[in-house]
Amino acid sequence: MEKAIVLVNLSPGSEDQSVVALKGTPGVRSVYQLYGLYDLLVIVEGADDQAVKSVISDTLRSRPGVVSTITMKVVSPISPNV
After folding, report:
1. pLDDT tens per residue, range 7-34
2. Which of 2, 32, 35, 56 lies most in the core, judged by the most C-beta atoms within 10 Å?
3. 82 is a domain residue
4. Does residue 81 form part of some domain?
């Protein structure tokens, strides 16, 4: 399972509808609304890199109201005991 963290900037007023739409999207594991430089933090998962890329390109970036994204590919999870 591949994973990426995506920070999203939205146009003003599109926050609530973007959160609702993304929560039900296949490949989107979690959506967090933020205050600060970014409006959303989205956790994306897929079977492989291509599946993750597809969710980001075809679903996230094409949504109305999305101004920009920054994607961080998760290399490996850290054990909570570390």
Report:
1. 999 999 898 899 999 988 999 999 999 9
2. 56
3. no
4. no
Residues in the chain: 82
Residue with tokens 């609530």: 16
Nearest CA-CA partner of 6 in 61, 58, 48, 63: 61
Over the stretch 48-59, which tens digit does the pLDDT of each residue have?
Answer: 999 999 999 999
Domain count, the chain: 1
**E-only strand ranges, the chain:** 2-10, 28-33, 40-46, 66-73
Domain extent at residue 26: 2-73
Q: Which two tokens stand for residue 40?
A: 């959303």
Q: What is the CATH number of the domain that holds 59?
A: 3.30.70.920
Residue 14: Cβ within 10 Å count: 16
- CB-CB neighbours of 56 under 10 Å: 20
CB 43 within 8 A of CB 28: yes
